[in-house]
C-alpha cells in the first residue's frame, strides 16, 4: 500500500492547524499519511503529537522521516483502537484528513471513502468525542462530495459549535476544513 503524498487537501488542513494556538498542547494527527499534519502541530508549538494511520507503510515512512523528533508517538491501526491501552488519554486538538473520495468499494484505504465518501468519516464521528479533551478542537477536512452541511449537523447535534474555516475549489469538488469545539 502506497503512502498518501501531501496534496491540496493536506496543505489546506496544515493551514488550519497552524492557525490554532497549540503551545504546550497534546495533539492527535489521525490518518497521518506523510506526517505533514504531525509536523505542523509541532511547528505550531504542540508539546506532544500522536500520529495514527491504518497504513503500515505510512507509519514506517513517517517514523523514518521524523526519527530525530522525540515528541511524536506513532501508532498503526484503525481510528481510535490505539487508545485501548490508554482509554483516558485526551487530546486538545484532533486533526483528520480522512479518506473522502466516493467509491463503490474501498480499494485504497488512503482515499477511498465508500459509496458516499463517508464510510470512515461516519465511524470517526461516532468515536472522536471520547478522545477529545473537554475544551478540545476538532479540525476535519471534507469534500463537497461528503455533504459538509450534513456533517456539521451531526457535530452540532453532539453539542459542538462547528464552522467552515477554510475552503478550496478544485475543478471537480470543493474542499472544506470544519472546525468544531464545545
From TrEMBL:
A single GO CC term for this protein reads:
eRF1 methyltransferase complex
What does the entry give for GO biological process?
Answer: methylation
Provide the species name.
Candidatus Iainarchaeum sp
Task: Give this protein's Gene Ontology molecular function annotations.
Answer: nucleic acid binding; protein methyltransferase activity; S-adenosylmethionine-dependent methyltransferase activity
Q: Which family does it belong to?
A: Belongs to the eukaryotic/archaeal PrmC-related family.
Annotated transmembrane regions: none
- Annotated protein name in UniProt: Methyltransferase
Give all residue intervals belonging to the Methyltransferase small domain.
17-152
Q: Which UniProt keywords apply?
A: Methyltransferase, S-adenosyl-L-methionine, Transferase
